Amino acid sequence: MRFAISLAAVVAFVPPLTAGEFSVGFGEADLTPDLDKKPVFLAGFGQNRKATKVHDPITARAVVMADGDEKIALVSVDVVGLFLPSVERVREKLPGFKYVLVSATHNHEGPDTLGLWGPSPVQSGIDPEYLKKVEAGCVDAVRAADKARKPALASIGAARDADLVHDNRKPVVKHDELVALHFRDPKTDKPLGVLVQWNCHPEALASKNTEITADYIYYTVKYLRESQKCPVAYFTGTVGGLMTTLGLPVKDEKGKELADETFEKADRYGYLLAKLAEKALKDAAPITLTPFDVRTRELLVPVDNNIYRLAWSFGVLNRAMYKWDGTPTPAKFEVTKEVSKPVAVKTELGYLKLGALEVAAIPGEIYPELVLGKVEAPADPGADFPDAPIEPAIYDQLKSKHRMLIGLANDELGYFIPKRQWDEKAPFCYGLKKAQYGEMNSVGPDAAPVICGAFKELVRGK
Fold this sequence. Notes:
The chain has helices spanning 84-92, 128-147, 216-228, 263-282, 306-313, 368-372, 447-459, and strands spanning 22-30, 53-54, 59-67, 70-77, 99-104, 150-151, 153-160, 166-167, 177-184, 191-198, 211-212, 232-236, 243-244, 285-287, 292-302, 321-323, 335-336, 343-354, 357-361, 365-366, 402-406, 415-416. The chain is an alpha+beta fold. The chain has a domain at 292-459. Strand 4 (70-77), helix 1 (84-92) and strand 5 form a beta-alpha-beta unit. Helix 1 crosses helix 2 and helix 3 crosses helix 4 (263-282). Mean pLDDT is 95; it is low at 3-18.
């Protein structure tokens, strides 16, 4: 996150499924806003960036997987993020599901769905009617995917390319693994769909662009749909740090380096990412995705960020604040309006064990260090909390051979930064003359310890 202060075609008839049989379906909904009725404020960079035209659609993409009658849905939307209350409203309209996960790609070139990028810092950029359209579109995409379900066999592959992501904050730690799931009809071997998970900010067009676009994700999905001849759903993973295309050298087919902030670079990057996904799919191995073990936990995360507190006071951030006494899972979650006192937001963590695949559902933009177990040790002496304990790494908790992380899952709390790498006050780390980017878009230095600690407990069943 940057902060300067058609439904899919559905099958008409689905034959009854055998009890315990694995099935999958894909669905889509078009969420492109109408620019003729009212201003559309683009999210991700500065305020008052109004959309001037539509370059490509904003889409909700859903995957529904079922073990007999037990169903889970995974939804990804081409927006900057969705708060937990939006996700809860989506779930209310989808009874009958064991679990519904709603995530955002964290697109920086789509409509503001969080409120931070309106006409001014004290005015929300959310159009309430558009937010309702997004929520309804998530529901429609899931229903379409559910209707399209067919018996399926699954395979999984992974591929790495450190040259496809840039880390613009020291220390340089990249999460450069792409994970792809491929689903096929067990009788005909016909492809039924592809799920791709990758770790990079969709911000290739940067801050000067005023055209609605899904950024490089539009192109990645487009190229994969053409090559795999089936629906494709893209999910964002570890994007903190931050993982970005800005400043990343990307060359065209003739070897010419493409400029940042151009559709040419977004197109080419999307194509290269699609080729990496094809590599993962080529080496994919069969995997069993049942039975489903889904665990979730509601918890409080303290909000120390004064910008966020002020934004809440002005109504720019529209969600409840809760009393914070240092306990992430209190006996009672108490709403408060006293933001001058310690406060927190209620969020949700998720852990999914889908057969041989483990999935971490993280409600924000987590730093790769916290996922891969690469937090600095010892900490740079310029850090604000150099003696803070190292958080338990997310992937250290996942013991299966196959694993995946979905970021901005069911909420968006900004960056989760290793506490011992928090660096707002001088002297700054690495001899820098000013603070690095990141802390201004985090709820606070204790967010990472709370999230990582709670995830460890969730996986262990505590």
